[in-house]
Structure formats: structure tokens, C-alpha cells
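Consider the following input, taken from an annotated entry for Acetyl-CoA hydrolase/transferase C-terminal domain-containing protein (Mesorhizobium alhagi CCNWXJ12-2).
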Amino acid sequence: MTGKPDQHQQAESVADRIIERLGGRIVLALPLGLGKANLVANALFERAAEDRSIDLEIFTALTLEKPSWSSDMERRFIEPLNERLYSGYPGLAYAMALRDGSLPENVRVSEFFFVAGRWLSIEVAQQNYVSANYTHAGRYVLDRGINVVAQLVAKRGDGADAKYSLSCNSDITLDILPVLKARGEPALLVGEVSSQLPFMPGEAALPASEFDLVLDGPERDRPLFVVPREPVSAADYAIGIHAASLVRDGGTLQIGIGSLGDALTAGLILRQRQPELFADALHRLSPGNQTIKRETEGFETGLYAASEMFVDGFADLYREGILKRRASDGAILHSGFFVGSNALYDFLRDLPEEERALFRMRGISFVNELYGEEERKRADRVHARFVNNAMMVTLLGATVSDALADGRVVSGVGGQYNFVAQAFALEGARSIITLNATRRARGRRESRLVWSYGHTTLPRHLRDVVVTEYGVADLRGKSDRDCVAAMLAIADSSFQDELLDAAKSAGKIEKDYAIPQDFRRNTPERIAEALAPLRKEGWCAEFPFASEFTEEEQRLIPALRHLKHASASRLSLARVVLASLAEGRPDDEERAALERMQLAAPAGLRERLYAKLLTWALRHGD
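Applying the prediction step yields:
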């Protein structure tokens, strides 16, 4: 890889050049998430679909797709959103082919991490899924004989003096490039330039000589894929406050994606701005004697982040003066990839150069593991708190995060195991697993804390700290009996007796054990009561940070969620329909929401019923 890269303005000419140089066997690695070279990938897919002598294998993860819908009501919400957020974003042809069953026989696609729940019913995707730790994915790619890496890049300069930043996906690319060079086998590094992608300096910025082919054409200005921040529920906020009380000033932080990550961010900001209000909320959320040490003071030294994903929350913590502790190289954050809201992209693009250098994108082996520069990493990652989400946790401390009992994959292991292992390897570090105590399925509440489950992501010998809205269970080094007791104390009270009976039947807790009364009020109503003073002070909004959703959409999201749950069965749907018919005329806010759903002037019986149902949901939603 020397000299000036071969420059192209059309993706088709890049694809032709790749085929010319490599022949008919192409093993294409695409970064996970945002960093895929979509145009190049689509052009290669088209060539392979046209010419069945071309053998195309694609290895990737986290394939991003525009939101889809399963009902007319959902369509009314999602279609305008897609037009606003994703107009001009090129969908991935291989993903569409996987979904409609038209993937050519000479094309194979394997992923090691899915967008949560999006591929559960697609058999070919389930069959080709590769279960992998994030840090092992690179070696699996190499073992497959990869000969093309195609990545979205940011560009500075021109010609041989240009630099191309791996930006949002330094993760696996930085780890595998040296191996590819050392092997001396034909392998092409292809860059697809985006003018919208923030240029991240440091190790992520590569000279032009590293690239063989570069696509820099008229579509370089197309928008980046946006992941809107999710609404944060009362239960999420309670979890966030509990988790925030476990973070040490002067420590190290990792945050997971989604509403629980935003709830933790909001909890840390509350603790920074109003520590007394934070401490009061923590006290009201924490019945009984939970022995793990809690922190309620603001941050003087601040935090350093070592997180595989650079989530939106880190930008918020930086603006609040919480994320500010520098590691030995001067960085306040080391991360492997990012994908998020427009606000995150704007934040990174608009940062002055010297401040952007504080955020270092590195190979995933650097972020997710201790080996390699271990002494330095141990010195930097003091008092680490690695916070990850789960789908379920058993009463004996096993964590279920990636797949169902029947083997179908919901998402993937990713880096979760990596950070749990680090938590046990680093002195003073803790792994914190967060999850809501219950979920709604088929119109009913179900416990996410279970006695046992037919799949495990993290075995129970790695149990550490588990947090639900009802409190904190410190499981590290505890006996099975004490683990069961601690988990029962943070379970929803609707399920505590059933869980206790299962533990007694297995002989894991004494037959006469009774859950202390302090933990018998684990109900959504108690959480709402505990958070009420915060709401009066302006905290705990459903969207606490800048949102891609309009005001009307922010009102519609909980209403549509409530309508879906309330009409999950035929009987419950009949009840909702009858109740909605009694609703009066919509007020101005409700009318604005109806207009957003094209239901303000309903035409026909179906639309009139939709309007009634939506008005009912807006008034009676969560």
C-alpha cells in the first residue's frame, strides 16, 4: 500500500477495479454500524448479482436500516420520520435481499452483532450469525481470508498529502491492518469519503498511502445515519440514579447504548448539579439496608471514559464538566466506534481541534482488553465502572444479553464479556449490569429477573453488581444463598413469591426464608412516588436531552406504546375501542398530534376509529 490511492467518483468504477485486481473471489469486511462504505458495498453486490461467477462474502455487524412498520398506525408515524431523517441515505442492498429472500447463491453475509431484535425472524441471517467477542471478531475476519476492507472515512487535504480518518470505526480496522500488511497477500483498503463524518485525529487518521482505492464523488455530502435517542421511563431513571451512585469521582466509566445509558447520564448530571437533591432521591429509591457503598457528591477530579462505544451521553458529560480526567496520553475518552444522534455528530464536528483531540478513537483491542500496554491501561482505568445492559438475569447471577433460549440471536455478545473480565482483572473495578425489573409482552407484565433460563451470555461465576429500578444487588463473592436473597430484594413484588418458591424448591435458600418487608413494596407506584419531587424540580423528562423527534412526536411515542400494550389481545382491543368511543373532541395539543398522524380530518370509518383510539391513548398513556 504505497503512493497515491486510486481515486474514483463513481462506486461502480471502484467495484470494477476491486474485481479486476482480485478476480472472482472477494471477501469483504465492512465495519459495524455507521462506518460501512454503503455505496461500494452496493456496487459490489450488484456486480455479483449480475455475474454469478463472482463469489462475494461479506463479514460485518450492526447493519443499520431505516425504521419499518408492522401496522398502518405505525406507518403513519414512521414514514414522515424516515423522510425527515433518512432521505438521501443509501440502504444496503444485501440487507434488503436478506429480508425479501432474494440473496444470490454466490453472495454470503455473516454478522457478529445485530441491531437488537431486527433479525429474529430472518432464518438465513440467524444461520450465518457468528458468535464472537468484539475483540475476537477481527481474527475471525482474517481467518476467512479477507481481501477488501471498505470503510466510510473523513478526509483532509488532497492527493498524496491527504489524510483519511477512520473516524466512527477505528475499532477492528486498526487491529487488522498490520496483520494484513505482514501477510503480504493481496488485500485492498478502500475509503468512501463523507463530508459529514467528523475527522477524528490521532491513531484513527491514516495517510493517503495506506489506501488502495478511494471513492470521493458527488454523494460525499449525503447525511449520516441517525439513531434517535430513546424516551427514558420512570424505571429507567431509577436505575440511572442507582447506577450513578456507584461511580467514583476520579474513576473510569463505560456506558451502554439506549435509554438506560441516557438515564445513567442524567443521574450523573443530577448528582453534579444538585447533589443534595440526588442524595434525597437515592434515599427514597433505596428501602432497607443495601450495603454497597454509594456516592452522592459532585465531581471534582472528574471521570475518564474507556468505552467501546462513544455514546451521546459522553458528549453531555463533557459539557457538564464531569468527563474531564485525562489518561496518560492526555485523552479523556478512548473508544472504538460511534453512531448516534445528529447532536453527537454536530458536537464532534464543531469541537475546536485541540478539544477534539481529547476524544481518541482506537483499535478495539486497546479499549476492550488489558493486554498490550497493560501497565499504562491499569494506571489509567482506576475505579472503573463498566455499565452494560441485559435482557434478563437469573437469581443465581447469570446474565442473558444476546440470545433467546431457542438459540435465536437478538443482538450479540459484543464487548460485554470483555468489560466484565476487565472488572475482575482491575483492582477496585466493578461490572454493573442494568435492566428493568419487568417488561411487557403480549399485553402482560413479565419479570426480567428469572430463576433460570435456557441461554447464558455471562456465567454466574462472573456475577458482580446488578441494578434494577428497585435497588442494587452486590453479588461478587457471595454465596448462592446470599445471591438469591439479594436478587429477590430488587425484583418486582408481583413476581417475588414465585421466584422465592423456585429458589426454595431448588434448596438454594432456607425453607422458612421471608423477604424483608422493606423490599415488599417493589412496585411501579413506589418508583413514581419516589421520583415525584424530582419531576417537580424539572427532572425526569421523557426526553431529557436534545431529540430528533418533534414535540408532537414526543407526545405520540408514549401514546402509541400504550395503545399497543393495551390492545395486545382481542378482548383488550375491544375494551379500548369501546373506551375510545366515549372520548370528547381533541384539544389543541391532541389535534396537533392527530395532524402529525394524518388523522385530524379522518376520512372513512377506519380513520375515524384511528383518531378516536389515538385521542384515548394520548389522554391515558404512560
